[in-house]
Amino acid sequence: MDAKPSSGRAVFLTYQVLAYVTGVLLVLLTFVAMPAKYLIGDDAAFSLVSAPAGTEQLFGAESGLMLPIAMPHGYAYMAYVVVVLWLALSRRWGAGRTLGVALVGTIPVLGMVVERRMARAEAHRSSSVQITGSTAEPAAPTSGS
User: What is the pTM of this model?
Assistant: First the structure.
């Protein structure tokens, strides 16, 4: 029995999960950890305000928020890129689309928007595929005459 159709769904599901994990971690990195390191605290590079009393360890150059957010984001993004390549190979994407989908993971929120659009396209793709026997083939077009 051929496991290709379920394998294709597994690749896409893995892509969806990693798109959201990477997106959430990137939002946290961009809007929480980076401002805490560079904008808040007396020793921050571009200090705008002082750190609230008792929370100095969370802000400034030695911000304790960077490691628990930046490291998981880095590993999640590397896994995301590998899964995008895996998905691109299984769907026979061109280099432009593959590079585009991989790069949207570097822009906060955009990766999640693209994932939703791809999920709709995948649902449409799945509904237009007719399963015959153990292989998946596109549904044959019907003629009007």
Answer: 0.76
Encoded tokens for 60: 């400034």
pLDDT at 49: 77
Cα torsion angle, 52, 37, 66, 106, sign:
positive
Alpha helices by DSSP H, the chain:
4-28, 34-38, 66-91, 95-103, 110-127
What are the structure tokens assigned to 72, written together?
A: 């998981």
Whether the Cβ atoms of residue 98 and residue 57 lie closer than 8 Å to each other: no
Checking phi first, is residue 100 left (phi over 0); if not, alpha (psi -120 to 50) or beta?
alpha
CB 83 within 8 A of CB 18: yes
Q: How far apart are CA 86 and CA 104, in angstroms?
A: 16
